[in-house]
């Protein structure tokens, strides 16, 4: 898996410090708390749960405001069965519409309805304000730059295959 | 709530940038992915779910390896009803034991059993190694320092009442 690591060798010599471990725990706790706070605020300001909002956001950013459910599941990183149950509830509320395509395994085509678009737009301003108030206002621009770099390092480490070469004839 | 913010005034003038918003989304996505990866690894390496591990960790750090369930719920930041269901399952597996105290509203006293202690100890080394491999190994010590400061700023902003004064005669 992780190349160059000799079992019991490098690991045993370069142990993680307890400070690093407690930063990991603080990262998990703090992001969990922020997500819950922002989720509660979202439900209060709109009629949308964080899960609804995540689905509407993905659809609103998709070409033609539609996506195959398999692609939607991958985009928001949910299990397909969880998504399918959730979409059924959102469809009953008129936020999305599904057209079954029996021809392949990529699932129904999911559309954002006008009602869903309105609900998403109505929720976005207060939600963005809440993110600003509880998250962005806490940090300096230097801290934002550092956080950006940290997240990039974590992502590159998680997905080394997706690391962009420093120079590349870019198609997109 | 947030002092000094004039409704529609300061907010409208100092809008959050789209870069800041995308850093927020990346923070949520990256920590979610890391948690899921580490949770899957934990379940594979031990017989514990991340939720089990969280409960065992809190109890193992508590004085006398016991806690009132209300305090445990606050410590790990769970709803009491969710914790109660989860503790029932852990008790059936012998990992914890509960003694009901009918005298007040703070819930049962929850004990870590010897079996729970062994399970926790057995899981900790591989779990810590996985945190090191997937998280700590991705970051330089400068990035750890920066992340520590960022998380401190976020926590202080979320809980201004808990911000420690720069100098204080420390009791603990």
UniProtKB/TrEMBL annotation, chains A, B:
Family annotation (Pfam families): MarR_2
Coiled-coil regions, chain positions: none
Domain HTH marR-type: from-to ranges: 20-156
Record-linked InterPro entries: HTH_MarR-typ, MarR/SlyA-like, WH-like_DNA-bd_sf, WH_DNA-bd_sf
Protein name: MarR family winged helix-turn-helix transcriptional regulator
